[in-house]
């Protein structure tokens, strides 16, 4: 009987393991584990070094390590490089912390919204869905086929290039442009 119970646990463990691995996505050359929080995963992505540095400069590390849940639209380093020269260096200065914080929290929505959740809102909203950001601003989500994109308050457009990177305290969607609030 004891061997039967052990064998049953082994079968269950093997059956569960592929599901756990299937939820782990690669971002910036690093595995993003659904058992880790947003910060624990983001620091390992080679494509998000600028974002991680900005989050640290804004003092948002503790918040994004919290229970959430959060939906984070995470711009890549390439997205930050699209900004005018010197913008990032200027934003991470201590005297610009409030502006940096506003920009970063404009990329965060309360709750855990998967790409499917956002797409359902877009379909229900006749092609558009307004997402209220933690900064108090609004992002407009839209779709082009199955691809989702966001339009910021200044009319800038950012594509979700990697969706549904689930974390213990939310979900990350990688975006290719920094979103700017009014």
TrEMBL record:
Domain of life: Bacteria
InterPro entries named among the record's database cross-references: Adhesion/Biosynth-related, FAS1_dom_sf, FAS1_domain
GO cellular component terms attached to this protein's record: extracellular space
Stretch forming the signal peptide: 1-22
Pfam families for the chain: Fasciclin
Residues covered by the FAS1 domain: 35-179
UniProtKB keywords: Signal
PROSITE patterns to which the protein is assigned, alphabetical: FAS1 (PS50213)
UniProt-listed PANTHER family: FI19380P1, PERIOSTIN-RELATED
Protein name (Swiss-Prot/TrEMBL): Fasciclin
């Amino acid at each position: 009987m004891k061997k039967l119970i052990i064998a049953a646990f082994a079968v269950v463990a093997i059956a569960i393991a592929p599901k756990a691995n299937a939820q782990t996505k690669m971002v910036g050359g690093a595995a993003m584990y659904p058992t880790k929080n947003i910060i624990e995963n983001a620091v390992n992505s080679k494509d998000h070094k600028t974002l991680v540095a900005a989050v640290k400069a804004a003092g948002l590390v503790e918040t994004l390590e919290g229970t959430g849940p959060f939906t984070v639209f995470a711009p890549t380093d390439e997205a930050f490089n699209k900004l005018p020269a010197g913008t990032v260096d200027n934003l991470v200065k201590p005297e610009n912390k409030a502006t940096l914080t506003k920009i970063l929290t404009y990329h965060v929505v309360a709750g855990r919204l998967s790409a499917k959740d956002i797409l359902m809102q877009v379909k229900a909203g006749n092609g558009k869905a307004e997402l209220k950001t933690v900064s108090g601003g609004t992002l407009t989500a839209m779709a082009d086929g199955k691809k989702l994109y966001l339009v910021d308050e200044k009319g800038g457009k950012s594509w979700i290039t990697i969706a549904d990177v689930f974390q213990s305290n939310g979900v990350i969607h990688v975006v290719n442009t920094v979103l700017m609030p009014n």
